[in-house]
Amino acid sequence: MRKKIIAGNWKMNMTPSEAVKLVEELRPLVQNEAVDVVFCVPAIDIVPVAGAVKGTNIKVGAENMYFEESGAYTGEISPKMLVDAGVSYVVLGHSERREYFHETSEDVNKKMIKALEHGITPIMCCGESLTQREQGITIDWIRQQVKVGFQNISAEDAKKVVIAYEPIWAIGTGKTATTEQAEEVCYAIRNCIAEIYGPSTADEIRIQYGGSVNAANAAELFAQPDIDGGLVGGASLKPDFGKIVNY
């Protein structure tokens, strides 16, 4: 039985003081030991948020990470820095990182390997554009992202990874993939993992759906056999996030 994981992706929102205020508001609303709850926050918010969630069921995630330990990489953040600051999870390969900052699946793979070396759980994102869906290549495209993302990762480490399927056309648009569309792709992702590692690894790995998840659609989405929770964007910045966690 895979434990559900509900992660909020704050994106580039919340100053440090605003972040602490939001955590204080959300803390009592997300108390649910039946699911893993993660706040993935901007880098500047990590330290104050880690302090604000201490002693609660909430884990802290970063929104990105570089694949080197240290060095002349101005503006980047290393896995050692994240661990020391109290980070347990890191979002890798989000469609916004891929589109705006030209990150490749090979980059994501390097980051995955480095995060796992440091005991950080990667939340690896994959998803298709509206054009790709209309062209009928959704499954092929996502299988490629998954296969490259998991290169040179052992089956034991693969089980620790969380995969987030986010159709790009449903992020921040108010559009949501139908339950059937979301389950179809998450099922295909699990089959892809089974091809790489075998069915036992595929059975253990957790796959989230993301893309305009809200309090109204969470229960139906999370009830699907291959959807193990959600990566939540805008709704994670509101009290409604508590309703999603307690779906």
Question: Which key phrases capture this entry?
Answer:
single chain; about 250 residues; alpha/beta; 8 strands; about 15% strand
Taken as a percent bin, the fraction of beta residues is: 15-25%
Distance between the termini: 17 Å
Biggest β-sheet description: 8 strands, parallel, barrel
Helix content: 40-55%
Strand numbers in spatial order across the main sheet: 1-2-3-4-5-6-7-8
What would you report as the Rg, rounded to the nearest angstrom? 17 Å
Number of strands: 8
Secondary-structure-based class equals alpha/beta
What are the secondary-structure elements, in order, as H or E? EHEHEHEHHEHHHEHHEHEH
Low-confidence parts lasting 5 or more residues at pLDDT below 50? none
**Global geometry:** globular
Mean pLDDT: 96
Give me the number of helical elements: 12
Explain this structure:
By secondary structure, this protein is an alpha/beta fold. It has 12 helices and 8 strands. It has helices at 16-26, 46-52, 79-85, 95-100, 105-117, 130-134, 138-149, 155-158, 179-197, 199-204, 218-222, 240-245; strands at residues 4-9, 35-41, 58-62, 89-92, 121-126, 162-165, 206-210, 229-232. The chain has an 8-stranded parallel β-barrel with strand order 1-2-3-4-5-6-7-8, surrounded by 4 helices. Strand 3, helix 3 and strand 4 form a beta-alpha-beta unit. Helix 5 crosses helix 7 and helix 7 (138-149) crosses helix 9 (179-197). The longest helix is centred in the last third of the chain and has 19 residues, at 179-197. The radius of gyration is 17 Å and the shape is globular. The two termini are 17 Å apart.
